[in-house]
Design a protein that fits this description.
By secondary structure, this protein is an alpha/beta fold. The chain has one domain: Vaccinia Virus protein VP39 (Rossmann fold), CATH 3.40.50.150. It contains 14 helices and eight strands. Helix 1 packs across helix 7 and helix 12 packs across helix 13. The radius of gyration is 19 Å and the shape is globular.
Length: 287
């Protein structure tokens, strides 16, 4: 999918749905990956991602607005003093957790294109009492940060929503420092997926139909310049978990279900930007 008008359609649909999710969380409800609490198929994706200790240290609205498919902050092995960027930061849960992990000498950026989510995230930041955080408005296809400025990029079930994933990965590579780490949670597909699922915008916004095939993900990361690429499954989704979700999207679970059983997984996707080569000081060092 590379046509600009299609990319814009996807972006607007995502913005609308996630804006609605932010409003629900801000009013005391629970956000849902599919865009509404009636789509209970989102629950298996978003539940049990964070420990009780992590949730206990966060504002309730930050936890309620969590729409991820993993816990990248726990998997990324963040170190004190590092600069972290969360692509599609939503209500700010992963940014706040990252800020705590990197400590006062580090910094955590959150990037989101939805005004409602940014408002909620800044409210959650204030309630959490973390100062080494900055939320930025923008699209993950055009990161508003300079080259070589970030140590670690995290993201939680967001890259699959983009209509131009090559651009997203190129931007991630650009802003990472040499030797920087790409460490995201995302929904990944194993094998072929029925066309009717790919065409379902509701499922796309709901963190499923925009997912890359596993090998395609690796290839795109490689083309962007990354190395040491690993796709590690963290959860395999079964048909029964998605039954109500499929029905809500107008698809017949009895027909579609067997074609997707076990093909959608949550995965921790890791890669590294190659370290900068040292400048040649003469014939002896070049040799």
């Amino acid at each position: 999918m590379s046509e600009p008008h299609i990319q814009e359609d996807v972006r607007e649909a995502v913005k609308q749905k996630y804006g609605e999710a932010a409003k629900r969380a801000a009013s005391g409800g629970t956000a849902c990956c599919g865009g509404g609490a009636e789509l209970s198929g989102c629950d298996p994706i978003t539940k049990d991602l964070y420990s009780e200790a992590e949730k206990g240290a966060l504002p309730k609205k930050a936890v309620a607005a969590s729409l991820g498919c993993g816990n990248p902050t726990a998997l990324a092995k963040l170190q004190p003093g590092e600069v972290v960027l969360d692509l599609g930061s939503g209500g700010g849960i992963d940014v706040i957790l990252s800020a705590k992990r990197v400590g006062p000498t580090g910094k955590a950026y959150g990037l989101d294109m939805t005004d409602e989510m940014l408002t909620l995230a800044r409210e959650n930041q204030e309630k959490a009492g973390v100062e080494n955080v900055e939320f930025l408005k923008g699209a993950i296809e055009n990161v508003p940060l300079p080259d070589n400025s970030v140590d670690v990029i995290i993201s939680n079930c967001v890259i699959n929503l983009s209509g131009d994933k090559d651009r997203v990965l190129a931007e991630a590579f650009r802003v990472l420092k040499p030797g920087g780490r790409f460490a995201v949670s995302d929904v990944v597909v194993r094998g072929e997926v029925p066309a009717d699922i790919r065409k379902s915008m509701e499922l796309w916004v709901g963190c499923i139909a925009g997912a890359l095939e596993e090998n395609e993900y690796r290839e795109k990361l490689g083309r962007a310049g990354f190395e040491s690429i690993v796709v590690e499954p963290t959860r395999v989704y079964r048909v029964e978990e998605a039954r109500e979700f499929l029905e809500a999207a107008g698809l017949n679970p009895e027909v579609v279900g067997p074609q997707i059983d076990g093909k959608f997984i949550s995965a921790f996707v890791r890669a590294v930007k190659p370290a900068a080569q040292s400048a040649c000081c003469g014939p002896s060092c070049c040799a």
